[in-house]
Amino acid sequence: MSKLNVFNFISLDGYYKDLDGIINWHRHGKEEEEFSIQSLRQGNILLLGRVTYEMMASWWPSQNAVNSMPDIANGMNKAEKIVCSNTLQISNWKNTQIISGDILTQIAELKEKSSKNITILGSGKLTTQLAEAGLIDTYQIMIDPVAIGEGSSIFKGLQRQLNLKLTDTNSFKTGTVLLSYEAIY
């Protein structure tokens, strides 16, 4: 049985994107880049909502991404990706599968059958749905030392309390802090 992990970065005031969906405020230094490279080397299946998928698919396969962050671009492009969407019909980003309909059942079955762990990137609505269903095992939340005023919470619309146990912390020279949690159900 595989584990389902959330990896997301948020602002100090708790948002993973601003009101316009922008994430360029994230502090991505050399240490964070190395963390990303090591995470991608684990070979997890990447799970994305449609909005996050469209943003990432427009960047990571591009020559600009390859030029600016070659190791991360390589890892993102090679990774197996699953997009949860009832509207997206085709994917032009290699190694991508689209699932629709009852995603909770499909993700539960994937966790049961897969030998690979699964990591949700971004995808606040998807994170909330899967957290509500008790399908998420761990959370890695990277907090950037910046307040953006208004935006979207990764747990927006959560209907029940989510209890977590802190399992690890890591701080980076940029002032960014990574908090790792285990879900308590």
What does this structure look like?
The chain has about 180 residues and is an alpha/beta fold. The protein has two domains: about 10-20 and about 125-185, 3-Layer(aba) Sandwich (Dihydrofolate Reductase, subunit A), CATH 3.40.430; about 45-115, no CATH class. About 30% of the residues lie in helices and about 30% in strands. The chain is built from six helices and ten strands. It has helices at about 30-40, 50-60, 65-70, 70-80, 105-115, 125-130, and strands at about 5-10, 15-20, 45-50, 80-85, 95-100, 120, 140-145, 150, 165-170, 175-185. The strands form two sheets. It has an eight-stranded mixed sheet. Strands 2-8 form a two-stranded antiparallel ribbon. A hairpin with a 5-residue loop joins strand 9 and strand 10. The longest helix is centred in the N-terminal third of the chain and has 11 residues, at about 30-40. The radius of gyration is 16 Å and the shape is globular.
The CATH class of the largest domain: Alpha Beta
Mean pLDDT: 94
Say which CATH homologous superfamily of the largest domain is assigned. Answer: Dihydrofolate Reductase, subunit A
The Rg value, from CA coordinates, equals 16 Å
At CATH level 2, the architecture of the largest domain is 3-Layer(aba) Sandwich
Strand arrangement across the biggest beta sheet = 5-4-3-6-1-7-10-9
Q: Number of domains in the coordinates?
A: 2
Number-wise, the strands total: 10
Q: What general form does the structure show?
A: globular
- Stated plainly, the CATH topology of the largest domain is called Dihydrofolate Reductase, subunit A
Helix content: 25-40%
**Structural class given helices, strands, pairing?**
alpha/beta
N-to-C terminal Cα separation, in Å? 17 Å
Strand fraction equals 25-35%
